[in-house]
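wait is this the right file?? whatever heres the structure
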């Protein structure tokens, strides 16, 4: 009889040991709750939108820096604008089709010409062949507008006129 009680005791003890852990349903419920919380956090943070906002902020900063450099050049040259700026909007780029202002304003008024974030590099340091993808135009009243077309979130495009 003593042996029988011991065997029954071992069986009930092993059964109790098994009931101390999590069941499969409990684990599935916890994983489901964690998945829902993670989805909510990702929607709230939205890293793709954050990167687009950062790129548009860089565009605003670059447009302002380019416009400041153009006006500093103009102030030092008795109101004359750099040679490539016309009444037709052109990319700030080298060549006949672009507004080639690099050698006029860089490095005296701006250390290097900024390039839009999606173009790959950060800035132009060599004025022989470049394209910043920013545009510049002067109106009939002599007001200069520098713009960044093709922004990611900003609507309308980023543009500053002075």
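ok assuming it is, sequence goes like this
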């Amino acid at each position: 009889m003593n042996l029988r009680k011991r065997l029954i005791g071992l069986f009930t003890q092993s059964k109790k040991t098994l009931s101390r852990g999590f069941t499969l349903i409990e684990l599935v419920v916890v994983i489901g709750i964690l998945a829902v919380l993670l989805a909510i956090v990702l929607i709230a943070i939205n890293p793709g939108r954050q990167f687009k906002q950062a790129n548009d902020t860089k565009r605003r900063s670059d447009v302002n820096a380019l416009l400041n450099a153009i006006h500093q050049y103009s102030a030092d040259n008795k109101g004359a604008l750099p040679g490539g700026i016309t009444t037709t909007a052109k990319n700030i780029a080298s060549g006949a089709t672009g507004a080639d202002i690099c050698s006029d304003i860089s490095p005296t008024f701006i250390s290097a010409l900024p390039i839009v974030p999606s173009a790959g590099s950060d800035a132009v340091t060599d004025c022989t062949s470049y394209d910043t993808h920013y545009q510049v135009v002067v109106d009939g009243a002599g007001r200069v507008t520098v713009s960044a077309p093709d922004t990611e979130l900003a609507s309308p495009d980023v543009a500053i006129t002075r």
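Strands lie at 90-93, 113-114, 123-124, 131-138, 144-148, 158-161. so i think its the right one actually
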